[in-house]
Amino acid sequence: MFRETEIYSLKKSPFELFGSDWAILTAKNAGGEINAMTISWGAMGVLWNKNVFFCFVRPTRHTFSFIESGSDVSLCFFDGKYKEALAYCGRVSGRDTEKIKASGLTPNEHGDGVYYSECSLALLGQKIYSEPLKEGSFWGIDPSEWYKNDFHTMYVCEIKRVLTKK
Fold first, then answer.
1. In the predicted model, is pLDDT for residue 48 greater than 90?
2. What pLDDT score was predicted for residue 19?
3. Who has greater pLDDT, 54 or 144?
4. 26, 67, 29: which is closest to 152 by C-alpha?
């Protein structure tokens, strides 16, 4: 159903993928458990001669502890018909319920990465850098529009595998 492909063969821009398609960020902790959250902010590009994606997670999110304790992170993009499932994963915490199961999404493993049967694109990666955003580092925007002392941590993840539907 999925095939491994080259990052350079992707047809959609990161603006469309993050801005309108949304995504599920999934992390596997050191114990092999997974947790996921919906994201609509992020970036893709080349850094340190590696294909990477950037994702941003608040320390208050349950997924944060999973990302911090393990190295494997995946970013899965979905067609519009899955917006309800993605919205559910964004508003319900994995601390309180088995939200992936309750959302109706079907997780699968490929190597060390997790993807979903329902996604159209999966970027399986490994974190290579993280840094908390800092109030004094914003230029030209007022961070109080987005934050009340709960700044995201930025993660840079090397893309190890790209999966697309056949």
1. yes
2. 86
3. 54
4. 67
Predicted pLDDT at 121? 96
- pLDDT per residue as tens digits for the range 57-106: 999 999 999 999 988 999 999 988 999 999 999 888 888 888 899 999 99
* Pairwise CA distance, residues 88 & 99, whole Å: 8
Among candidates 166, 157, 165, which has minimal Cα distance to 75?
157
Residue 137 half-sphere exposure toward CB, CA atoms < 13 A: 6
78, two tokens: 């979905």
- State how far the Cα of 98 lies from the Cα of 69, in Å rounded to an integer: 19
Q: Which residues pair with 116 in a beta bridge?
A: 107
Q: Please list the residues that pair with 124 across neighbouring strands.
A: 74, 161
CATH classification of the domain holding 39: 2.30.110.10
Could you tell me the residue range of the domain that residue 73 belongs to? Answer: 2-165
Determine contact, residues 102/92, Cβ cutoff 8 Å: yes
Q: How many domains does the chain have?
A: 1
